[in-house]
Amino acid sequence: GGSWGTAVVDGNSVTISGGQVGDGLGSNSNGWVIGGRGNSGASNNTVTISGTAVVNKIDAGESTNGPVTGNKLFITGGDIMGAVARAGWSSTGLVSGNEAYMSGGVIHDVPSDFVTGHLTGGLSLSGNAENNSATITGGSVFSITGGQTNGGDATDNRVTVSGNAQVGFVEGGR
Known about the structure:
mainly beta
């Protein structure tokens, strides 16, 4: 859902419970599932992946220049083949209050590689990452990060691991 215009994209949802989106091989050129994408911001968008769904990569909310807030990602099953599943992503804006939940399924890079997948509450390439969370109670992923930034501050981000989850690496904030 959403638009790649100048507007803020708010309140869209995508649900996939079966089938395949893209080539199923983790390609960057196809198979992305995006709840809402707006150039000036994305808020309150939701993506749900379940059952036998096969997708390449996921962003519940995504923006190049604006804030990304309150987006939610739910993974209860399926295969995420492109190693990336994020509740929120922004290139330059604040990423805040995004929530990723995983209770089943696998996030990996290629069909035979179960050690490269990443579940992230919120990622900003140059802005701040605040109050994002990632929770896993089941399924398999290499790393889980509450909030991450490559050029700002990461504060008050959280990770919860419980149940029969299989995780190789955990970071609250980075």
